[in-house]
Amino acid sequence: MLQIAPSILSADFAHLAQDIEKVAGAADLLHLDIMDGRFVPNITMGPMVVEAVRKATDLPLDVHMMIVEPDRYVSEFRKAGADMISVHVEACPHLERTVGLIHEVGALAGVAINPATPVEVLVDILPELDYVLVMSVNPGFGGQAFWPRALDKLRRVVSLRGDRARPLIEVDGGINAETAPQAREAGAEILVAGSYVFGATDPVERIKILRRD
Ligand code: DX5
Ligand code: ZN
After folding, report:
1. Long-range contacts of 82-86 (CB under 8 A, 24+ apart)
2. pLDDT tens, residue by residue, 145-203
3. 9 in ligand 1 pocket by Cβ < 6 Å?
4. How far is residue 159's CA from residue 180's CA, in Å, rounded to a whole number?
5. Which atom of ligand 1 is nearest to the CA of 40?
6. C-alpha–C-alpha distance, residues 155 and 160, integer Å
7. I want to staple 33 with a disulfide (CB 3.0 to 4.6 A). Which of 9, 47, 136, 140 is the partner?
8. 130 is an active site residue
């Protein structure tokens, strides 16, 4: 079943609770982008903001960690309210250990892959993952254009997964009315959308468009 995860990166941070309220009845998950100014050029939010968001909604929180040494913060983000935690394969020299840590603290574990990282790097860790996050932009900023070759990567994750039900396949970056059907067709089951949802006067309408068959 398709899940829509609005990314609050494009929400109004001065009125975060109100923006979250707008999508509460229409979204399946809320996507939170954690950036440290090292793994990616931008700096966004830490566990304190995640904790504040946790108090503002019952939606499951999908925390996307774009930081170096994510192991150091997994437990803090879980305590702050993260239900799903993804780390970047490019930031994890001991990925199997990191995934184990995420499970140990009781969250679902995802691995995110940058555009230039081949999905095949996940072949041996795949059975341990709850979801794979295919980046369809270079991470760091909202509002970038969808990278079309992500579609082929999505198809390759589907084929690596074979007949198993997990990992679920999430896509993040440049998702809108035009790219969502393409990503779904290629196998994406969780669509992250930031600017397309929160950049609109009616975010619920935008979520409905993403769900449209
Ligand atoms: C980019 C983030 C995305 C971002 C997507 O580094 O991981 O989650 O919010 O924004 P849009 O949907 O505007 O591309
Ligand atoms: Zn993200």
Report:
1. 82/32, 82/50, 82/107, 83/107, 83/108, 84/29, 84/60, 84/108, 84/109, 84/110, 84/130, 84/131, 85/109, 85/110, 86/62, 86/110, 86/111, 86/112, 86/131, 86/133, 86/170
2. 999 999 999 999 999 999 999 999 999 999 999 999 999 999 999 999 999 999 999 99
3. yes
4. 20
5. 6
6. 9
7. 9
8. no
> Residue 150: what are its φ and ψ, rounded to 5°?
-60, -25
Ligand 1 contact, 100 CB (< 6 A): no
Which tokens go with 92?
Answer: 């994890």
Q: Is residue 12 among the annotated active site residues?
A: no
The one catalytic residue in 19, 28, 33, 36 is: 33
Cβ < 5 A residues, ion ligand 2: 33, 64, 172
State the Cα–Cα distance between residues 12 and 170, nearest whole angstrom. Answer: 24
Q: Is the CB of 41 under 6 A from ligand 1?
A: no
Please indicate, yes or no, whether the overall pTM of this predicted structure exceeds 0.85: yes
